[in-house]
Amino acid sequence: MKPLKGIHHISAITANAKENLRFYTEIIGMRLVKKTVNQDDTSMYHLFYADKRGNPGTDLTFFEIPNAGRTYPGTQSISETSLRVANDEALNYWLKRLAKYGVSHDNVQEVFNRKVLKFRDFEGQRLQFVSDETNEGVAGGEPWPDSPVPVHQGVIGLGPVELTVPRPEKTHRILTEVMGFREVGTYENDVDKKITVFATGEGGTGAEVHVKASHNAPRERPGRGSVHHVAFRVESEEELHKWVDYISSLGMTNSGFVERYYFKSLYFRESNGILFELATDGPGFETDETLENLGQSLALPPYLENKREEIESTIKPL
């Protein structure tokens, strides 16, 4: 198979889709590029926030589970999501904007030779802005021009994803021996936990996984503000079928080929129990909506259209 191209999307959990929509569009300034439902449970929203046209590598998505409890952070988790911005100066803008809206945040710091700004959303989702100033890898997307955030400070995609695991060597092996990642460095955080950095494809901020070793922490209890899974980019449907055959040949339990309409997918869990998805770059979100109208109405793939009336009667309008 060809190397994985980087991060495709990250899917998290919210208990309040309406407030989630307000936070990520009005404060963070991302574009709602698709308002649809969870194809495995059509009673819940699935919201996609991204760049101007929802390019692969820019999508932060949320499932709404209204009765989701709080998250108890711990190990065996996707413990931090990064949002890319163009340069270090953009982080100064975000310091002021987060303070203006009362968003919990830290100061700008340097992590793995990049400037970052860590913050939490209204449900405690663990996030950071990461500067692309020194990036020489996968290119970012194009900020939404109608965003309340100026284009030069806007979010251009997803950055490194952090995994916290009790047996890091097992995750390292899956990433390198199975998925074709390469180790590119290590660093320690402020509580002396070693973090190992892996990259795929062109590398850089849009193609890294940071694996944090946490041997004694309890397992995370997910809820609102936690991450459900991370997806990695596959070039084409043909390549994805190769991955399905390969993962199956290794005896790893997996979903097989899954039709998601906007992309095609394969799901499996790595050795510490974290859910990985491989997803194709296309067809994309303009399959059933024009670029100008992305996210404005409830979009359903053709195989759910016959349930539209039932679905619309179940979910609350945003």
Automatic annotation (TrEMBL):
SUPFAM superfamilies: Glyoxalase/Bleomycin resistance protein/Dihydroxybiphenyl dioxygenase. GO terms for molecular function: dioxygenase activity. It comes from the Bacteria. This is Ring-cleaving dioxygenase. Keywords: Dioxygenase, Oxidoreductase. Residues 6-132, 157-281 form the VOC domain. CDD domains: PcpA_C_like (cd08347).
